[in-house]
Amino acid sequence: MNLPRAMENPLAGVTVAVFGSSEPREGSGEYEVARRIGGMLAGAGARVASGGYGGVMEAASRGCVEAGGATIGITCSLFAARSPNTWLTEVREGADLFERTRLLIDESDAFIILPGKSGTLAELAFLWALDRAGALGGKPIVLCGTAWRTIVDAIEGAGALEPAQRLITSLETDPGKAVAILVRRIAERRRGRGRRPVSRTGLSGV
After folding, report:
1. pLDDT tens digit string along 47-69?
2. Which of 18, 99, 110, 178 is 20 to 30 A removed from 37 (C-alpha atoms)?
3. Percent of the chain clearing pLDDT 90 (strictly above)
4. What is the domain-level CATH number for residue 126?
5. Is 59 inside any structural domain?
């Protein structure tokens, strides 16, 4: 029996940004988790977006391409000495870190965020800030990794995370379950149960 295309590829037409550390190398646990996530996203029909360089960015892109998917890397002219990873089917360049982040968010319909350092935390905080300003439209965020529960609980406990932004943020430690949550959240948005963005981020207005 042939399944409807929407059931075969529940993330068809969706771009998912994968954020995380630039440090993991091939063979490490962190790299292979990101690679697996990229493969599962491609299997569900999604395109993978990333910052375009190494570590989690490379691994997620690699997993996606190995599974037959498409990828986009948003690089930055400030990192002219770095080369984009070889697993990108499209590359765009931002003039600076602000434009790079804006392009990544604008290109993406959902986000999976793996553990990282200050850059990853900044990306997450910016997503929350955009949603609070009404400029993200409730795009789903899935935090994947054991460290996130402690971090989110601390931020929430300090009163720095609003209930609305917590609502769009899911926490999971298993990569397969993280992708499954994203599939469900995207399906809910398509049925009109989630908030939809009415415009691009427009950073100057936030």
Report:
1. 999 999 999 999 999 999 999 99
2. 99
3. 84
4. 3.40.50.450
5. yes
Residue 143 placed within a domain: yes
Quick one: pLDDT at residue 123? 96
DSSP string across the chain: -PPPHHHH-TTTT-EEEEE--S---TTSHHHHHHHHHHHHHHHTTPEEEE-SSSTHHHHHHHHHHHTT--EEEEEEGGGTTS---TT-SEEEEESSHHHHHHHHHHH-SEEEE---SHHHHHHHHHHHHHHHTT-STT--EEEESTTHHHHHHHHHHTT-S-HHHHHTEEEESSHHHHHHHHHHHHHHHHTT-S---SS---GGG-
Question: Hey, CA dihedral for 178, 92, 102, 146, is it positive or negative?
Answer: positive
Mean pLDDT of the chain: 90
Kindly provide the b/e burial profile for residues 4-17, where b requires at least 16 CB atoms within 10 angstroms of the residue's own CB: eeeeebbbeebbbb
135 lies in which domain range?
Answer: 10-191
Around Cβ 193, how many Cβ atoms within 10 Å?
10
Residue 138, in any domain of the structure: yes
- Domain total in the chain: 1
Residue 4 lies in a domain: no
User: Model confidence over 1-47: pLDDT tens digits?
Assistant: 333 444 579 999 999 999 999 999 999 999 999 999 999 999 999 99
Question: pTM score, two decimals?
Answer: 0.89
